Amino acid sequence: QMQLVESGGGLVPTGGSVRLSCATSRQTFSDFNMAWFRQSQGKEREFVATIKWDGESTYYADSVKGRFTISRDNAKNTVYLQMNSLKSEDTAVYYCAADRFWYSSSDAATDSSNYVYWGQGTQVTVSS
Question: Which of 20, 105, 115, 121 has a CA-to-CA distance to 94 between 20 and 30 Å?
Fold first, then answer.
């Protein structure tokens, strides 16, 4: 089992920034590829970003490319999502997810069913 705990969400002004964190106590964190997904009210969960176990590869949804940055610190067993230039449409519950397999196909990497472990989510609300 792998417990993931997200933090850092809250109310953010339009155009503002926030950094989300997702931590685990599992010592084999570096064996896992990590991802962020989000879910807005009444919508399906959607892919945001993913990062390879060694941090050497990342992939972003077009809607966040250039504004969001995913990173990880394997020494701290933590993955981050830096969110800049926030828009109202970024309002959602943000979830981190983990899987041992690195999906080189964008279709597979963005499919939430391919990730085994999930956090409980953290709410980000962007408001003017």
Answer: 105
